Amino acid sequence: MIYTEDQIVKVNGVVLPGLVKSIEVKESAQIDEQEVEGSATKPKQATGYEDAKVNIELILDDTPTQTKYQRLETLRAIFRTPGQSVPKPISIVSEDTAAHGVDKVLFKGLTHKMENKKEQLTVSLEFWEYVPQTIQTTSSSSRSSSGGGSSGGSSGRTQQQTALSSGYHKYLQTSRGKSPAVDDASTAAALDKISQMPY
Question: I need a labelling partner for 20 at 20 to 30 A (CA). Which of 11, 27, 145, 179 fits?
Answer without folding.
Answer: 27
